[in-house]
Design a protein that fits this description.
The protein has helices at 8-15, 32-49, 94-109, 124-132, 165-172, and strands spanning 53-57, 65-74, 78-85, 115-120, 136-141, 155-159. The chain is an alpha+beta fold and 175 residues long. A six-stranded mixed sheet has the order 1-2-3-4-6-5, with helices on both faces. A hairpin with a 7-residue loop joins strand 1 and strand 2 (65-74).
Length: 175
């Protein structure tokens, strides 16, 4: 179902879990307000395209929230694929399943907008998910503003097509 403020508390449990942020511990949420704000930012995508990230539940246990996944329109210019699931649910193909559903929806409704994703380069499981759903790496380097901070891993941008230079520059400039 569409991710919304009613997911704040359950999503915060995921976004505040240290295991979720093993590859970038400094990004862990320390208050539900951060999660609320993150979810709030995704609402523009729902408003613009009737598509955005989902709160994800088990098909056979519909009250069991397992995390956040899907695709978000960023700045009206690109789709950004994302997934963040409860650690006890990893390894079941859920990130791949949700990503495939999101790609299908975005391609159907808005085939001209590039589909992209960004991961830290120290995260092979996340890279594997993107490879499995057919995205390919288009750029790798420093996250803007991180300079040579050794606690900040490099990032890699993926896309479903060659990106126009201005779109790539826009993605490289996203914090
Ligand atoms: C990354 C994450 C979304 C993966 O979710 P998942 O539901 O376990 O993913 P899937 O089961 O669909 O696929 C994972 C793939 O990575 C592979 N994998 C897992 N750990 C791996 C590792 N250390 N090295 C290489 N591949 C790995 C799995 O074998 C699987 O590939 P396969 O189907 O070819 O065997 C999940 O671990 C997560 O939510 N992590 C925390 C949040 C996060 O890091 N999100 C990404 C932000 S960029």
């Amino acid at each position: 179902m569409p991710l919304s403020a009613k997911h704040d508390a359950e999503a915060y449990k995921v976004y505040s879990d240290k295991r979720i942020w093993e590859h970038r511990p400094q990004a862990r949420h320390e208050s539900v307000k951060e999660t609320h704000q993150l979810i709030g930012r995704t609402q523009a995508s729902w408003a613009a395209k009737d598509l955005g990230p989902w709160g994800v539940y088990m098909r056979d246990q519909p009250s069991e929230f397992i995390g956040v996944g899907g695709i978000e329109l960023v700045d009206g210019r690109v789709w950004d694929l994302k997934y963040r699931f409860r650690p006890d649910k990893w390894g079941n193909g859920f990130a791949t399943e949700v990503s495939e559903a999101a790609l299908k929806a975005a391609k159907r409704m808005d085939p001209d907008t590039p589909i992209t994703a960004r991961i830290t380069t120290n995260h092979p499981a996340s890279a594997r998910v993107l490879e499995k759903v057919g995205l390919r790496p288009v750029w790798e380097g420093r996250r803007i503003g991180t300079g040579d901070d050794p606690s900040e891993p490099d990032v890699r941008i993926y896309a479903d097509r060659d990106l126009p230079e201005e779109i790539l520059e826009f993605l490289k400039a996203r914090p």
